[in-house]
Design goal:
Helix content is 74%, strand content 0%. The protein has 287 residues and is mainly alpha-helical. The longest helix has 38 residues. The protein is globular and about 55 Å long.
């Protein structure tokens, strides 16, 4: 790898991060009305606090990354504070997914304990990888660009994203199992089920896709690309978590405004239909 090729790779990474900040601002503008409608009138509680963190802290993290990208000269920016903000932003967004999954499983105590333990292990593992910059678990390329403030990450970041992707796959599997086991087998078809389960699975798949992409970039691509999707990771988490919350509350509103049964059962499940309808309403209300 030559000096010029690394400089070109680094420039592409910087453009990608600035462009991602623009995506975050654009998404905020087009979903601000939904935020006002579905969250501002709600009392402050755990879900609203976590939502606020996942919604607004990425602006701080993305802004700090943009500053690191555009900084012409001077002392190195505080990368430690930036990493902490990125981690908190992602943890908050994942927290909304955990709460939603717990609600899907009728607030199972065993599932909640298991998810909390696994979440803590995931955070500890990811942070540990971040705290080992001088202990390369994956062979690292030597940067051709002199100076301590290059916009490049350690190869260990691939392991951080791999740990995160594994956690997200577990959330996806739990959601898919609940959908197919409880509703697909009983031939229940409705817009609310599609929104609650199908829409959520699509959004989680988007998160997993960008996380896996970061694993590949940090593990296999030239070092100049290592931070290319650094901002996109927290932006996707923020955007997806917000949209899941808005869509679920929109579905909850439609469910409670209508007296028409929302779920239509097959003949062999005629009686449990209303019970499953109430379960769906309860699950959405929790999120």
């Amino acid at each position: 790898m030559s000096y010029l090729s690394e400089v070109a790779d680094l420039q592409i990474s910087k453009y990608a991060n600035i462009g991602t900040l623009a995506i975050l601002i654009f998404d905020y503008c087009i979903t601000f009305e939904d935020e006002v409608h579905w969250t501002w009138s709600r009392p402050w509680g755990l879900i609203r606090i976590i939502f606020t963190i996942s919604r607004y802290l990425p602006f701080v993290g993305s802004g700090m990354t943009a500053y690191a990208v555009l900084r012409p000269s001077g002392p190195c920016p505080a990368s430690g504070a930036e990493n902490i903000i990125h981690i908190i932003s992602i943890v908050a967004a994942e927290g909304l997914l955990v709460i939603r999954t717990w609600a899907f499983w009728q607030k199972s105590r065993k599932l909640l304990i298991g998810l909390l333990i696994y979440s803590a292990a995931t955070v500890i593992g990811a942070v540990s990888m971040n705290l080992l910059p001088n202990h390369q678990l994956i062979s690292n390329d030597t940067s051709m660009i002199p100076g301590p403030c290059n916009f490049e990450a350690s190869r260990n970041a691939a392991l951080v994203y791999a740990i995160l992707a594994q956690f997200e796959c577990v959330i996806l599997i739990l959601t898919a199992y609940k959908w197919f086991h409880d509703y697909r087998d009983s031939e229940i078809h409705s817009s609310i089920v599609a929104t609650v389960y199908g829409g959520s699975m699509l959004y989680i798949s988007c998160i997993i896709a960008i996380t896996v992409t970061n694993v590949i970039i940090d593990a296999a691509l030239p070092i100049g690309f290592s931070n290319m999707f650094d901002t996109l990771q927290i932006v996707i988490h923020s955007v997806v978590a917000s949209r899941i919350l808005f869509h679920l509350r929109s579905s909850d509103s439609r469910a409670h405004e209508s007296d028409i049964p929302l779920l239509v059962s097959a003949a062999r499940y005629a009686q449990p239909s209303q019970m499953q309808t109430n379960e769906i309403k309860s699950e959405i209300s929790e999120v």
